[in-house]
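Lab meeting prep.
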Amino acid sequence: MSQLKVDKYKEYKKNKKEILVKQKRKKKIEKIATWTITIGILGGLAGAVGVTIYNEYQQKLASLPDYTSSSYMLSDLTGVLSMEEDTDESKDSTNTEENTNTKDTSKESNEESAADETTGA
């Protein structure tokens, strides 16, 4: 058994440089892998937090009223707007009635003149 120990030691001394190079290479690979995984996990967490904050901000913006659109109006508590709409509608209906009356009058006068011509001729 002691001879086995001596043989291992001799072999170790013979290949010491190669063994140390392999160990250093293995440690570097382990460090790089550890840092890569750590950075990946931290980056993923930071990205998730960033996306969550962005989504909450977008929800907040969507919940705010839109002051630029015409759909935002105060409710008509005093009836002022409905009174203005009524007066606008009555003006429009008066104008259409006058136009209708003018057309009817011109038709009647044309019919009377046509009747006079036929009876007078």
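Slide two material, second protein:
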Amino acid sequence: MSMRDSGFGAFLALIVVGVIVAIVFAIATPGSDSVDPETLVAARDATGGAQTREDIMARQRGLTIDDSFRRGATGDPDRAAAATGQLGTLGGVSDAEMWRALRYGSASTSASSGGPAATVLIQDGGMSWLLLRDKVIAKWGGWLLLGMIAVLAIFYALRGRVPIAGEKTGNLILRFGGLDRFCHWLTAGSFILLAITGLVSMYGRPYLIAIMGKEAHADFAQWSKIIHNNISFAFMLGVALIFLKWVRFNIPNWNDVRWMIVLGGLFDDSIHPPAGKFNAGQKIIFWSVMLMSIGVIGTGFGLLLPFRFEVFGDAFAWFNGLGVLSWLGLGDLPTPLSPQEEMQYTQLVHAGFGFLFMAMIIGHIYIGTLGMEGAFDAMGSGYVEEQWAREHHSIWLDEVQAKDGATRPAE
């Protein structure tokens, strides 16, 4: 598997930064809709001070509204309407007032069930999470994948397949042994299953129900979730093995700088910069895989073991303390967070990393199959054409041949 895709690596690095910034802005910035506070107050007057449909819709759009009209209406007889009035208390505390006290944390609660989330009976962040998931992560993540496929299709139409430029020798040299290939395909196979089942979870309801019906989709989604949760352990093992096997070959050096200057000869078949076992493009992919694996595995554990880790509340508080958002004229990120909100942000970040990971692997698959002649053989049979190795990994080839001259005739 040879990769002349340093351009892909730089492109994906920019995508990573851009998506992270977009998520922060989406979380910190209120909805684009506006609401006139006086309109809301006038509407409440018509209901005797109760919240209105406009209040509810404004909150669901992520707008900040003045809710002091109900925050303190939690059953204080001195502040409540008369029992004979339109919104009078029922024996001092009405059902609505009790739920307001629960919503704003002024009620003393206990729960017979265990767990840190048991006493959180009302959590307003669900709608904001759903909007961010559907309107930002699912929407732009889908466009990212389709865009990557489109870019590669155009690139292939214009550039074609990168050929073995020199005359083939007919000799094969072992590039990856059986253990290397096992680690690669364990990781690759589990990742493909994770990607498919993750996309089912993200897009199943809006798209698959219309195709297969609700009952069939329910069974399909359930099995997808089971597969996703359990195959993740195979992926974690594969990533760990790949790191241990290949990290020593992926330490950057000056040959990588020279490789990057000419982009690995991506646009010129006559240029073949020297490279070791992994070239600069492959090293970018390797370290990107490691970093994104940390992201998906860390957040994945948070989803597999719900309510065990509190990460985002502390991270948001730290980020607020930097003052960056205030410099940009934005409001602070929410703190503290309920256990449910921690899980919601964990899911969003997990999905964001997942989309970035899938986009990168689409490029990786392209280079290893359609994009370059002879590349797939490295992870297929393990043997590559000697001339291919000479053009793409000449330093590694010289080292191997000086050591044991490990070549054999092509069959």
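Talking points for slide two:
The domain at 6-29+125-176+250-409 is CATH 1.20.950 (Fumarate Reductase Cytochrome B subunit).
The two ends are 20 Å apart (CA to CA).
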